[in-house]
Q: What sequence folds into this?
């Protein structure tokens, strides 16, 4: 077979255009010639990988377009739909700036000791009446009553609230504290839940508490990290006494080894 | 038995844009947390996430596929496998991880991940070719006939056949001389 004729046969084979007899003959030739078989396999692979119209490449293009919609971790937050919500966020940012200005220019030390990672401290503009739970804020916030900076929801975690996920063969269902539970500053907090499934011997779980500071969350630096040892299915509890200043906080239970979040919830301190 | 998370698989197989966005929103943050702990960036996490979804697409496209585990565990298992390989490749040193012991990625899934990695290598090598070669080969790989390519580009069919052959051989030379190809073909990393 001349080189040109061989190339044509090979192309026809790759394009599935050989008649059955010629195809069988070509396949027999491949069986006897491993080098030819390897070359044909690579060419078939190239046709699959580089065909712009293949199902995989069309899927890849869809993903690329979707991935571009999430250029940063913050962009993963659920879209804001309500104009009230947007105005609330703008109001919150305004208050944050106002609070920062106040903290920079006020005389003397801060009135309350700042936590290790300060959830933006309440400022003079903080309403004197307790702020309503975040969910109510989102629906009922008016431009004239913006959310105080320390109580601003953290979009990256809001989405995951209440999620109950599994890690391998086990899961955690938390019963306490309830969503947006309110605690007084420096009061102890009881975490209570039920473990379900089979726990591996070396399961390491952590209870993490984050303030509403996006930078702290972004850096995965929780305000508090406490090892949570669960060895079998059933109820468990743990009491902590974190020194928290007023604000909105998020807590999560994560699998230490995998980083999976098993449970995410929020509470308020005021 | 079908797992209740099977709907995520359907969203992937049908390229459902809205549901794919939801998959990003729900599952990219925990993966980012994991990648970040290992010194990676958000971009690393996003790339690993995309590759993991492509692996799932291939794996779930096989006839008879059914999700039997929670989607998050399935996705994170693949993502960890890909991230670990990436770390090994970049560091060129032995990286140990408890994940290997805790999350078993079965052989067929591992094979899909290796195939996706091979395809990425082909794309990378293809991009190294000259513009002329890429133009002819891209149309060839899109299964256009050589005589159509020749007439569109204003060349004779003989010229395009030769050009196609030379370019394809150049591409295969690039690929076969790359150490990663040998590794992927003969000695896939665990």
A:
């Amino acid at each position: 077979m001349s080189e040109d004729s061989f190339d044509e046969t090979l192309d026809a084979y790759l394009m599935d255009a050989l008649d059955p007899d010629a195809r069988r003959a070509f396949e027999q030739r491949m069986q006897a010639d491993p080098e030819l078989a390897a070359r044909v396999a690579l060419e078939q692979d190239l046709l699959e990988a580089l065909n712009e119209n293949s199902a995989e490449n069309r899927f890849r293009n869809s993903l690329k377009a979707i991935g571009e919609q999430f250029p940063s971790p913050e962009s993963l937050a659920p879209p804001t739909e309500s104009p009230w919500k947007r105005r609330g966020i703008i109001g919150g940012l305004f208050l944050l700036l106002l609070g920062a200005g106040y903290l920079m220019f006020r005389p003397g030390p801060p009135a309350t000791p700042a936590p290790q990672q300060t959830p933006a401290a309440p400022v003079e503009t903080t309403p004197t009446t307790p702020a309503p739970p975040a969910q109510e804020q989102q629906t009922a916030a008016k431009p004239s009553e913006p959310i105080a900076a320390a109580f601003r929801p953290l979009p990256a975690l809001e989405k995951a609230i209440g999620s109950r996920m599994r890690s391998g063969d086990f899961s955690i269902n938390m019963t306490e504290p309830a969503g947006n539970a309110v605690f007084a500053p420096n009061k102890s907090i009881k975490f209570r839940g039920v473990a379900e499934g089979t726990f591996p011997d070396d399961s390491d779980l952590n209870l993490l508490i984050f303030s509403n500071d996006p930078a702290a969350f972004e850096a995965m630096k929780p305000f508090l990290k406490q090892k949570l040892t669960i060895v079998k299915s059933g109820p468990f509890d743990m009491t902590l006494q974190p020194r928290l200043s007023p604000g909105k906080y998020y807590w999560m239970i994560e699998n230490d080894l995998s980083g999976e979040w098993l449970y995410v919830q929020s509470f308020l301190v005021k | 038995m079908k797992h209740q998370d099977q709907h995520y698989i359907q969203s992937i197989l049908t390229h459902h844009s809205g549901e794919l966005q939801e998959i990003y929103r729900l599952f990219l943050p925990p993966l980012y947390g994991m990648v970040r702990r290992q010194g990676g960036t958000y971009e690393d996490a996003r790339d690993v996430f995309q590759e993991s979804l492509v692996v799932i697409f291939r794996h779930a496209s096989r006839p008879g596929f059914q999700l039997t585990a929670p989607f998050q565990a399935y996705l994170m298992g693949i993502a960890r496998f890909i991230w670990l390989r990436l770390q090994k490749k970049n560091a060129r040193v032995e990286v140990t991880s408890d994940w290997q012991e805790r999350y078993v990625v079965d052989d067929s899934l591992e094979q899909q991940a290796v195939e996706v990695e091979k395809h990425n290598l082909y794309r990378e090598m293809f991009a190294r070719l000259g513009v002329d070669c890429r133009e002819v080969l891209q149309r060839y790989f899109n299964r256009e006939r050589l005589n159509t390519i020749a007439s569109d580009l204003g060349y004779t069919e003989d010229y395009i056949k030769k050009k196609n052959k030379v370019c394809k051989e150049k591409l295969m030379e690039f690929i076969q001389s790359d150490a990663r190809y040998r590794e992927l073909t003969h000695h896939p990393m665990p």
